[in-house]
């Protein structure tokens, strides 16, 4: 294709379009490069300040099943009052003398759990508060197709409410049943360790109101924190260890009956 | 170069450019800063309103009740366990006075008879048997339960 065969108009058209394409390409390359440089600086800064790594301890030997944590959680985080939506809830496990295990959690434990099995049939009974386990390898994060749920740099599994498309994949993926579809916002909702509180130096609402200190919140990296002390004092266990999700919620006194 | 290949190349470049350009506008600013998510969402989560204010805030005005409470068996309990803030009371607690509860049902939430409570040695009683229809706070001071009025 000789240049002499192209008339002036075509030449002009190619020149302007080449300039336009080249310009936009250059512009689009600059922006990601900037981001790259920025993120590197950011990571370097974070390493210096030493991010906390949040976790929770739950002492089954102290929980009385009063349901205060469930109430407080609903209030603090604007969770709908209906008995299907819980960021945290309490289950009562009753092992009967004939070996049967009865698990109940009427209204998540709000208003206090009541024993429904007659005393003479009970072998043992205990309360298990449950919440999001804030897994290190969270199945919900892997399942999310748009990156709307993620693990924050300080180890809390959070939901991006403006980015979530409400597909419920994460709800199905969670082996602990800790997620639900919020009927008001129409996006996935879950425990955030009260992220708005802990980032201001306060404790999560459930920890704040627990009358028997059955919930212990703290920084796993701080060797002087209450949580590390709790874990050193008691033999702790996580829920569903065989799934290798590496939760950051640690239970003391967890029986094998707990699912 | 044949004309058709040149045109194909040109349109290919144009489409790639268009794709890169649209992608640039569609992806939120902070996406990918820390990982495969929008980094600004962390700040969104931090910015949620706060309801429970914490014991320290209550002590500012109610030091006397706090002293009374911390001397008795209810010392471990935080103020807002029994006096939760009113919904949307993010502002001043003096304008939206926290709930006061003193009914039998309220005390029963923790103290009604339950095998799980029995097992850990928590004081639990058969409410019906204990004092009939009398309200708990008629005899017990909720801040210091063993300072009996009768």
From TrEMBL, chain A:
Organism: Yeosuana aromativorans
One Pfam family of this chain: Fer4_11
Gene3D superfamilies assigned to the protein according to its UniProt record, in alphabetical order: 3.30.70.20
Positions of the 4Fe-4S ferredoxin-type domain: 54-84, 123-154, 155-184
Source organism, top-level taxon: Bacteria
Protein name (record): 4Fe-4S ferredoxin
InterPro entries from the UniProt entry: 4Fe4S_Fe-S-bd (IPR017896), 4Fe4S_Fe_S_CS (IPR017900), ET_IronSulfur_Cluster-Binding (IPR050954)
GO terms for MF: 4 iron, 4 sulfur cluster binding; metal ion binding
Keywords: 4Fe-4S, Iron, Iron-sulfur, Metal-binding
Automatic annotation (TrEMBL), chain B:
InterPro entries: Multihaem_cyt_sf
Superkingdom of this protein's organism: Bacteria
Protein's UniProt name: Uncharacterized protein
